[in-house]
Amino acid sequence: MTDIKTVIQEITVNPEEIIADYRLVYHSRQVSLVTRREVMSGKAKFGIFGDGKELPQIAMAKVFRKGDFRSGYYRDQTFMVAIGALSTTEFFAQLYAHGDLEADPATAGRSMNAHFATRSLNPDGTWKNLMETYNSSPDISPTGSQMPRLVGLAYASRLYREIKELQTYTEFSRGGNEIAFGTIGNASTAEGMFWEAVNAIGVLKSPALISIWDDCFGISVSSEHQLVKQNISNLIEGFRREPNTDQGYDIYTVPGWDYPALVQTYLQAAEIVRRDHIPAIIHVIELTQPQGHSTSGSHERYKSKERLTWESEFDCLIKFRQWISDNDLAMVKELDQIEEEERQFVEEYRKKAWQEYISPIQNEREELTDLIAELAKKSIHSDQLEEIRNNLLAIPTPFRRDALSAALKAMTIIRDEKFPSKNQLIEWKNSQMAMNEERYSSHQFSQSSRSALNVPVIEPVYSPDSPKIYGFEVLNTLFDKALERDPRVIAFGEDVGKLGDVNQGFRGLQEKYGKLRVSDTGIREVTIIGQAIGMAMRGLRPIAEIQYLDYLLYGLQILSDDLANLHWRTKGGAKAPVIIRTRGHRLEGIWHSGSPMAGIIHLLRGIHVLVPRNMTQAAGFYNTLLLSDEPGLIIEVLNGYRLKETLPDNVGEFTIPLGIPEVIRPGEDISIVTYGATCRIVVEAAERLSQLGIDTEVIDVQSLLPFDIHGSILDSLKKTGRILFVDEDVPGGTTAYMLQEVIEKQGGYYFLDSPPRTLPGKSHRPAYGSDGDYWSKPNADQVFEMVYQIVGESDPTNYPNYF
Ligand SMILES: Cc1ncc(C[n+]2csc(CCOP(=O)(O)OP(=O)(O)O)c2C)c(N)n1
To answer: Looking at CB atoms within 10 Å, which of 163, 353, 464, 657 has the fewest?
Structure first.
């Protein structure tokens, strides 16, 4: 093991490097200044920049190696440039919302400025060799939300180091020597997920190096309103590890304007983190924010005169310049010269980025105005067309939407006229629509060959010897096979390890596969999800368990803000094939029998949401997801573990396709569409209805996202003419979603003989006990009654109203 002092001596920073660092700090500052100007002049909508935080980022970049990962936030502009993961033209392209991937490789114009990311995927969706690149997970705006995924990014190194079978995955790790670097603003450390993540990383003994950029403010709110004792260093003291132990963090505090101290601190901290997997926090204090928080307002409104004076003196750029001069590393003239050069470079990059952004838009406008001019020659409404054309040409910096609106207006004007060149306008409009659909809406789901929708269907195989076993045992057998097959499959959650989960799906598997493959976590839903996201970003296949569906709400924000839009917001640059496992719908009590599915499906577009009715269906879905490169949520039916099911002989292989409903009881008179725990209830009601001669078709949709991709429910409706949607969500929740899918999207409206109906749970939470459940959730009596009423409406003779 290398001694820390030797390391520092070995990696001395030479004068040329110092001057290059100065150049970069100045360059970044200039970019920030120009960014503000661009926003103020109306060329860009909003600007946020890294000014005042440049120097510590230079120090951090010195210890950042290929294979490492960053999980940071919008201030890290200098760092991203320093590691070569961001060019200045790319920074400006994102500022202008340039919607092309080549211009803004981080987000293709989908994210506001200073949202950084590197691309982990090849254009075909396969992984790049992440050991050959400097990696940054894709930023999101909610402050503190970079912390949950940091847990998994760091923990992955530990798994790659300690699980022997993973050591061949050399495109993701070399012996777990990679650091996950987190950055966060001082004010955002008041967020709960900061604390949860710091604790989790400490418990997991994972190599994270967390930098806190402390400028004493969170927009206008000073530290006294953010933190007890106003100082995060005081608060994190309890995380500090005792000398010569491996529990806790190494904690450093260093002024953000002190170049040698910063370099030394980062060198020392990173070496220990990398070598020993002891996490570290570097609290970088005395930072400034020279232009205020963003372009949204000036900081003179909330900073005192004294503070502003102090900031102008302790600005890291000024201090760095002074230090260089004081140490005779460069003459004042040389520094002036560098500054002049950098001002010019930045201006050149800005111009280039602007031209590359605006030229195609101007060209498209020109195409359209030429078309309209041609049409005006033939149309009887030439004046109106000319006016549209002139108005469009008069816009100094047009957007694409201006041209499209003009085209639509022109089309309306000439709607009654007939001449062939009209078609060119229609074609132009259609090609714009298609181009912008791709520009803004592609990649919500995998477009690779490993999309979950491409997984081949393998039917379950049954033989006379197939045993009938409890539902939890079906899952137990399945998880055993999955863990055996692939060392990247890692399962974790509350009570998953020693106990094998509260319903024993993982019973005995920790003993068999070890504590790292099947493990317990603390009660920390947000970072269980984050742990999974980070691990999956580094090539692992986490199965993260949230103990009950009701507690998924804790993790819903991070699932929604981070995981669900990850692939979309990077236009296919990153993926995290996470499997979230949970159980719900029905047990007893307010927080153990909820089924808040509408909240989930509406917030989690981008994640597959699967609602199997039994454990065999669940097993098929696990197999499908494990063969795909997409994230999915599987909700098992909580009261189904102790029901017996026949174990397929190929439980480890069979797959169930996504978005394919299953008719679980054929019928002719009415279609009932449902999922999950209500499948059994509806079938029970259907049997009773059949005694009265009402033949009910019961359809289990099985997967809510995607929903019935081939429109097969419509076939059922065409046959029966009547439809009822049943579930346990609130009124207007998932039943309304299913109704919209079938009646509006599939065109079910045209085949209805009776009004479509929904039978959800009550609008309040489910009350406790058997009676509480009966009067809170749909039951077989209610299903029976509602179907009887629907049928009775059109056939009152045979089905008179007796209620
Ligand atoms: C969850 C959330 N709440 C509020 C905001 C609005 N917001 C954006 S930045 C910011 C202040 C963050 O301050 P700090 O963490 O100290 O970082 P700094 O900007 O000072 O570097 C706030 C409140 C947000 N983006 N996300």
So the answer is: 464
Neighbours of 685 (CB within 10 A): 27
Exposure string of 652-684, with b = 16+ CB inside 10 Å and e = fewer, is bbbbbbbbebeebbebebbbbbbbbbbbbbbbe
Q: How confident is the model over 421-450, as pLDDT tens digits?
A: 899 999 999 999 999 999 999 999 999 999
8-state DSSP, 457: P
Q: Which strand (E) or helix (H) includes residue 490?
A: strand 489-493
3-state secondary structure string across 369-416: HHHHHHHHHHCCCHHHHHHHHHHHHHCCCCCHHHHHHHHHHHHHHCCC
CB of 32 closer than 6 angstroms to any ligand 1 atom: no
Binding site membership of 354 for ligand 1 (Cβ less than 6 Å): no
Helix 316-326, helix 54-63: angle, nearest 10: 70
SS3 at position 71: strand
Residue 427 burial (10 A CB sphere; 0-12, 13-18, 19+)? exposed
Q: Say what the pLDDT of residue 109 is.
A: 97
Ligand 1 atom nearest to CA at 75: 21
Residue whose entry in the numeric block shows the structure tokens 């900031």:
311
pLDDT tens digits, one per residue of 82-127:
999 999 999 999 999 999 999 999 999 999 999 999 999 999 999 9
Phi, then psi, of 469 in degrees rounded to 5 = -135, 170
Q: Is 288 in the pocket of ligand 1 (CB under 6 A)?
A: no
What share of the chain in percent tops pLDDT 70?
99
DSSP of 583-603:
EES-SSSTTTS---HHHHHHH
The answer, yes or no, to whether residue 3 has pLDDT greater than 50, is no
- Concatenating the DSSP letter of every residue in 227-275 gives SGGG-HHHHHGGGBPPTT--SSBEEEEEETT-HHHHHHHHHHHHHHHHH
Determine the Cα–Cα distance for residues 270 and 209; give it in Å rounded to an integer: 7
3-state secondary structure of 27: helix
Burial class of residue 802, CB neighbours in 10 A (0-12, 13-18, 19+): exposed
Any atom of ligand 1 within 6 Å of the Cβ of 146: no
Q: Which atom of ligand 1 is nearest to the CA of 141?
A: 25
Does the beta carbon of 215 sit less than 6 angstroms from any atom of ligand 1?
yes
φ and ψ at residue 570, rounded to 5 degrees: -105, 10
Q: How far, in Å, from the CA of 738 to the mean position of ligand 1?
A: 37
Three-state DSSP class for 658? coil
Probe residue for ligand 1, chosen from 46, 51, 141, 188 as the CB with the greatest number of ligand atoms within 8 Å? 188
pLDDT in tens, 29-52: 999 999 999 999 999 999 999 999
Instruction: State yes or no: is 602 an active-site residue.
Output: no
The active-site residue, picked from 27, 115, 293, 592, is 592
Structure tokens at 145: 């939300």
What confidence category does residue 15 fall into, taking pLDDT thresholds of 50, 70 and 90?
confident
User: What separation in angstroms does the CA of 532 have from each of 61, 391, 735?
Assistant: 26, 52, 30
Contact 632, 450 (CB under 8 A): no
pTM: 0.97
